[in-house]
Amino acid sequence: MSTHTEVNVPALGKINLPTGLFINNEWVPAKSGETFDTVNPATGEKLVAVAHAGKEDVDAAVAAARKAFKTTWGRKIAGAERGALLNKLADLLERDAEKVAAIESLNSGKGVRIAREGDVGDSVACLRYYAGLADKIFGQTIDQFGDEKICYTLHQPIGVCGQIIPWNYPLLMWAWKVGPALAAGCCVVMKPSELTPLTALMLCDLAKEAGIPAGVINTVPGLGATTGEIISRHLDIDKVAFTGSVGTGRRISVAAAESNLKKVTLELGGKSPLLIFDTADLEEAANWTSLGIWFNSGQDCCASSRIYVQETVYDKFLEVLKRRAEAAAIGQPHDEKTSFGPLISAGQRDKVLSYINSGKEQGARIVTGGQKWPQSNGGFWVEPTIIADVDESMKVVQEEIFGPVIVAAKFKTEEEAIELANNTTYGLAAGVFTNDARQMTRISGALDAGTVWCNQYGLLHAGVPFGGFKQSGIGRELGTYGIEAYTQVKAVHQNLSQTIEWPL
Ligand code: NAD
């Protein structure tokens, strides 16, 4: 079976894409010869068949990663050199931004301009941020024992890390995982989502070109229940870093516990609340709310999917927001003007439509949207949708929809707003719009969320940590917290003059 496939890419023509497994810096087919298909979400048609990694393939990838960890990476290379290689990788990604963005757009359905300026741009920035941190990893000196001894801590790389990522930001989630892992000195066995494996595979060629040694990055595409499960249960993987749904996060935790108690970090889902007070600038708040819910067609873990609006401005705000929904730049992914593309799959589209129906059945009001986009043809679009007058018992309020659907309800007082916002099992993000600075401080302290945006929404930065309270996850990515998640602390006691008598 071939490890590369020619694909026709809008505006770029035919490109020969890697579709095999990347193990020890070489492209190989799956040992079993098995493949799975990945689909174009804008047409519903098959894009390419990709190699499906099985147990033997994952074993080979782990062995290559372990060897690199012991010989060319890990503690065998200076942090500054790791940083230089990551910077080189970032430069190559920037050089190939057009091509990588075109493939990201084709495989995930997002608008090509968004893919280039957002996904590729932010991935380059993330790699550079961690390149800069690679030689700034240090512990403590505990020098409080007089002449007897000195103690210090070493922050050492954890080792071989399995990394399992989702389909909504295939390239950016790759950068969030690979950047800190490599900067810390870890080696990686990466499993991209079966729905969007293409850019993770392209990045392997760039890593090799950058000079990153063989075995440091290995990529094993495959399904969750097979390849993902094999990684989570592998006895020679030291950590799994996962981004995806709560259900899968739970399964990975169990697999890790039942195998070698590998360390686990989880970035999971959300049902993030946004509070809008009557002192806020409603036009401005509507712009940020729209970005929060309709960016990436709502397929965003920190989407502002529940809004609570003070009753005095509830109707007015919904009117302004409705205008924003109807002005969304919905269109074909390859069109430079598009910022709202199709959902990732027919299954995801049908799930979103069934949530909209359940909202209707439970008595909520559809303000706008609620249907497939009329020009969908074979693609998976759902219109930007607002569901108003919801109450806390409804499924659309309690469950993550992961589509372009926002639910709205009103509140009277600040206390009530906080209570409604925190009435969820999730705790990934939250937002508040108010012009009262003291209220902003009170509320950001009271919200149960790993990120709180005040008078804006949805903007992330490589230097600022991100992760969940409650069932939205364990651990943090980004910032210096993100690199800590790939190191482990060793305490060294160094005797200078202590002696003991034996027996005691
Ligand atoms: P998913 O959990 O279905 O899949 C994510 C990844 O896990 C995929 O690579 C999949 O193949 C793999 N997987 C599935 N079953 C597995 C198993 N049993 N063992 C090991 N791996 C398995 O999630 P998704 O549908 O791809 O992504 C959507 C979800 O991800 C949403 O809930 C969203 O909120 C969440 N998400 C969270 C963040 C964050 O940073 N918190 C970011 C993006 C997405």
UniProtKB/TrEMBL annotation:
Record keywords: Oxidoreductase
Superkingdom of the organism of origin: Eukaryota
InterPro entries linked: Ald_DH/histidinol_DH, Ald_DH_C, Ald_DH_CS_GLU, Ald_DH_N, Aldehyde_DH_dom
Record bears the keyword Oxidoreductase: yes
Alphabetized CDD domains for the sequence: ALDH_F1-2_Ald2-like (cd07091)
Domain annotation Aldehyde dehydrogenase: ranges: 27-492
Pfam families in alphabetical order: Aldedh
List of catalytic residues: E267
GO molecular function: aldehyde dehydrogenase [NAD(P)+] activity
Signal sequence annotation: none
Family statement drawn from the similarity comment of this UniProt entry: Belongs to the aldehyde dehydrogenase family.
Protein name as annotated: Aldehyde dehydrogenase domain-containing protein
Organism: Cutaneotrichosporon cavernicola
